[in-house]
Design brief:
The structure holds three protein chains of three kinds. Chain A is 64% helix and 0% strand. Chain A is an all-alpha fold. Chain A has a domain at 23-64. In chain A, helix 2 packs antiparallel against helix 3 (46-61). The model of chain B has no long low-confidence stretch (mean pLDDT 86). The chains are: A mainly alpha, B alpha+beta, C alpha/beta. Chain A binds chain C through residues 3-4, 6-7, 10-11, 14-15, 17-18, 21-22, 25, 64-75, 77, 79-85, and chain C through 35-39, 41-44, 46-47, 76-77, 80, 92, 275, 277-279, 282, 347, 349-350, 353, 359-361, 457, 461, 464-465, 468-469, 471-473, 475-476, 478-479, 529, 581-587, 590, 593.
């Protein structure tokens, strides 16, 4: 019984993380902002607010797909217009 | 000897740069203006010593040129903008 | 990143210099790990900012590392950003208060012109004579104080690669007054006359400062004589690349066995220690078999990166670009495209971003579209797995057969990239002429410290990737492969009855014509996130398929026993082309500012993959039966 619970939690955490990581960047950013705003509004416990902020920060940094090498982390300004040569 | 175009020289030729042409018509492309400008900025100015140190086989294009103390790889087409005085016969 | 947040009143500095002057090394030396990488508003050029403090009074500085530029008249996107930033034209950014102009002390003739161009614009600056250690040891003469007087701006010596090499710069910076923000500077393109005049001034100043340039080192001249020789050059290049692939296999053999043994041991321990059941299966079949299968390839990836870093640091790459220009020209690209394409051998993402140094838009686009065909390091686990299972470990003459096959796969990637470039440049991406005009910097011994740092970075990235996304996907896959459980009285492995089994069977219809069984078809799905995940997925799927107590059996013998050679070859062919990497598609979208290109890219690559796999499978089946 306890095994099933532990396994279930692990799988849930993994699935959530995978979904989060594979979400399109803009969507992820919106979701993170929404969550952070909700946490702050609800006057929730400080750890929750800090957690929400951390997620938002991570979403801001993870605007590239691979996001692991320093080359890809981006600022929140979305690119607009075409580059000229 | 009158100045010749760098693009006509083979490996081993050395001398000094005489001029850089900005003649878009002769070289057939308005992009050549950008190239000529960049050549000047990189140091292909009158009086600078050069030596052709390598070329690709077959065809000899691109070529590698030592200019002063710096090495550059360039194609014959852009080398065509550079006029040089060759030393020796 | 850790470190103090830049204070609002921190002085804003920027590093400027021509390419190859060691600017980035100086940036790293000054800011250490306190760097932040972002984007300039509106364009996709990387913006590197860091922070550091003065040595005695602890004054705060913010430092921007601007892209290398030969002049303020730009020929590439990179150079345009540098110019716009210095002139204060960038949206949302005011000009830096002061500029650190980095020059290569061993190449002042090339480097000083930009300094004068900036000085004449009135940009407040301090000149960093970088690589001054090299200059001294090679016999360059220069009167630094005289140079400072002639230029009219402070000049300090720096050695970016040495501890404390930035000290003089820091001390000098402290002594400089704070400046009021400048309005955007007026700037017009210099005329040819003006450029020549500036150049004459550069030579006059160098002469006045007693600049003495020794003749080039004889040994290095001889090296170039070989490396750039019309016949020997390409031979050396091919031999070098070939050697690298051999090394990737032979040097990695022992470390890989160690990692493999370790992973298996851990799996066996867990299997024995935990009571049989869900948790046991999750940890052994999901985590260990899944993530562990990918971990095994760490030694090979590290060796590959080692060589890439050495080549990048050594100054050899521009020479390779020169050697390959003809060949790349035959498909319509410039030799310049070689360097971003070489980076793609590590990972297409930085390779695609490096295409910003390609001036022509269509060239750049063509290079971006073919970059994924360059065999990236994530393909290595897949290739290595199949080679290990199907190619015998024997020698063919002086060569290792497995290394030979790997080399062939890499060549296939390159040849297909050339073919695609050719097609693109003939049709959609035709363009006018654009020059090569490439500087060939002097050779350098790669700095061991930089090398170690680079490898360590890579190691961390790899472990992070395995420990997060790969692990997460393996756990999810395990779940999908274990539920629903097999009905009573069922024969065969339980996995067939699970969600994953059903998905695999459904996909098998699509992939049967190219010889993929349902396990492979299933593994391709999580493999979309990242290529090496397919290896982990196969690990988990086959581990769960293991009946009885043979949990310790590794993936390689399983595959060797159940797949046909034709299937294995077909999968190899698939992987040469298939765009199994979301990250690459996302970066292409960012770099081209549209979804059109990544979708086109995914489309053509999947089509090519299917066709290639189909042909391979059919031909191989016919030949081998």
């Amino acid at each position: 019984m306890w095994q099933a619970i532990i396994v279930g939690l692990i799988v849930l955490a993994a699935a959530t993380y995978a979904a989060w990581a594979l979400l399109p960047a803009a969507l992820r950013l919106r979701l993170a902002r929404h969550l952070a705003a909700t946490a702050r509004r609800g006057g929730g416990p400080t750890w929750l607010v800090r957690f929400a902020d951390a997620i938002e920060g991570s979403a801001l940094r993870r605007l590239g797909g691979c996001s692991k090498c320093s080359a890809v982390q981006a600022a929140p300004t979305p690119p607009k217009g075409r580059e000229k040569t | 000897m009158p100045p010749v175009s760098l693009s006509t020289l083979r490996k081993g030729a050395r001398g000094t740069v005489a001029d850089v042409r900005d003649d878009a018509q002769t070289l057939g492309d308005e992009a050549q203006s950008t190239v000529s400008r960049r050549l000047l900025e990189l140091g292909f100015i009158p009086g600078e010593a050069f030596e052709v140190i390598a070329e690709i086989w077959p065809g000899g294009d691109p070529m590698a040129v030592r200019l002063g103390n710096t090495l550059f790889a360039l194609r014959r087409r852009e080398a065509g903008a550079v006029l040089v005085s060759v030393e020796g016969g | 990143m850790s470190g103090p947040a830049p204070a609002l009143d921190a002085m804003r500095l920027a590093l400027v210099g021509v390419p190859n002057c060691g600017k980035t090394a100086l940036f790293n030396r000054l800011t250490g790990s306190r760097q932040k990488v972002a984007n300039y508003a509106g364009v996709t050029v990387e913006r590197k900012e860091g922070a550091f403090a003065g040595p005695t009074r602890g004054e705060r500085y913010r430092l921007l590392d601007l892209p290398g530029a030969y002049s303020l008249t730009p020929t590439t996107l990179d150079e345009a950003i540098t110019r716009d930033c210095l002139l204060g034209r960038l949206a949302g950014e005011s000009a830096p208060e002061r500029v650190i102009c980095v020059v290569d002390a061993t190449n002042l003739r090339l480097n000083l012109r930009l300094v004068l161009e900036l000085r004449d614009l009135g940009v407040p600056m301090i000149v960093a004579l970088n690589m001054s250690d090299l200059a001294h040891s090679r016999g360059f003469g220069l009167d630094r104080e005289r140079l400072e007087r002639e230029l009219g701006v402070p000049v300090v010596e720096t050695v970016a690669i040495r501890d404390g090499g930035e000290r003089a710069l820091l001390e000098r910076l402290e002594g400089l007054p704070t400046l009021a923000p400048r309005p955007p500077t007026e700037w017009r393109e210099s005329s040819f006359e003006q450029i020549q005049q500036t150049q004459r001034e550069v030579r006059r100043i160098l002469h006045a400062a007693g600049y003495r340039e020794p003749a080039r080192n004889r040994a290095l001249q001889r090296v170039d004589g070989l490396v750039m020789h019309p016949i020997a050059g390409p031979v050396i290049l091919a031999a070098l690349l070939f050697f690298v692939f051999q090394a990737v296999f032979s040097w990695a053999a022992v470390p890989m066995e160690l990692v493999d043994a370790g992973v298996n041991w851990l799996g066996a321990q867990l299997h024995a220690a935990l009571p049989p059941g869900l948790l046991n299966s999750l940890l052994v079949d999901g985590v260990i078999a899944g993530a562990g299968s990918v971990l095994v390839f760490l030694p090979q990836i590290m060796i590959l990166f080692f060589f890439i870093l050495v080549l990048e640091d050594s100054g050899y790459l521009p020479r390779a670009a020169y050697l390959l220009d003809r060949m790349m020209g035959s498909v319509g690209l410039s030799g310049r495209a070689f360097i971003p394409l070489l980076s793609s051998f590590a990972c297409a993402v930085p390779g695609i971003m490096a295409t910003r140094t390609i001036p022509n838009v269509r060239d750049r686009l063509a290079t971006i579209m073919i970059a994924p065909l360059m065999t990236c390091s994530a393909r290595l686990p897949v290739y290595a797995l199949i080679i290990a299972a199907f190619i015998p470990r024997q020698r063919v003459g002086a060569f290792n057969l497995q290394g030979l096959v790997l080399f062939t796969l890499y060549v296939a990637g390159i040849v297909s990239a050339m073919a695609v470039a050719y097609a693109l440049k003939r049709t959609a991406l035709r363009s006018t002429y654009h020059p090569l005009l490439l500087e060939l910097p002097e050779y350098r011994w790669p700095d061991p410290r930089n090398l170690m740092l680079g490898l360590w970075e890579r190691l961390k990235i790899f472990l992070q990737r395995v420990g997060t996304i790969i692990l997460a996907l393996m756990i999810v896959l395990w779940f999908l492969s274990s539920f629903p459980a097999a009905p009573d009285g069922a024969t065969g492995p339980a996995i067939q009855y699970s969600f994953a089994g059903s998905i695999g069977r459904a996909l098998e219809h699509v992939f049967a014509p190219i010889g993929f069984n349902w396990q492979i078809s299933l593994a391709l799905v999580p493999g979309l996130a990242a290529r090496e995940v397919a290896v982990g997925a196969l690990g988990t799927v086959y581990s769960l398929s293991a009946t009885g107590d043979d949990v310790a059996a590794t993936l390689v013998p399983m595959i060797a026993g159940t797949w046909s050679l034709a299937t294995a070859l077909s999968l190899l062919a698939w992987y040469v082309f298939a765009p199994q990497c979301l990250s690459t598609l996302v970066v292409v979208k960012r770099e081209t500012n549209s979804w059109r290109y990544p979708l086109l890219m995914a489309g053509y690559l999947f089509a090519l993959a299917y066709i290639a796999a189909f042909i391979t499978y059919r031909v191989a089946s016919a030949v081998l039966s």
